[in-house]
Amino acid sequence: MSVRIGTAGWSIAARYADGFPHEGFALERYAARLSCVEVNSSFYRSHRPETWSRWGAIVPRDFCFSVKVPRAITHERSLVDCGDPIAKLLDETAGLGDKLGVLLVQMPPKLVFDAAIAGTFLDQLTAATAARVVCEPRHASWFAAEADALLAGLRVARVAADPARVPAAAMPGGWRGFSYWRLHGSPVVYHSPYGAERLKSYGAQIAQAESAAPAWCIFDNTASFAALGDALALDDLLSNDGAQREADGFAPRVGP
Question: Measuring CA to CA, which residue among 65, 74, 6, 71 is closest to residue 39?
Answer without folding.
Answer: 65
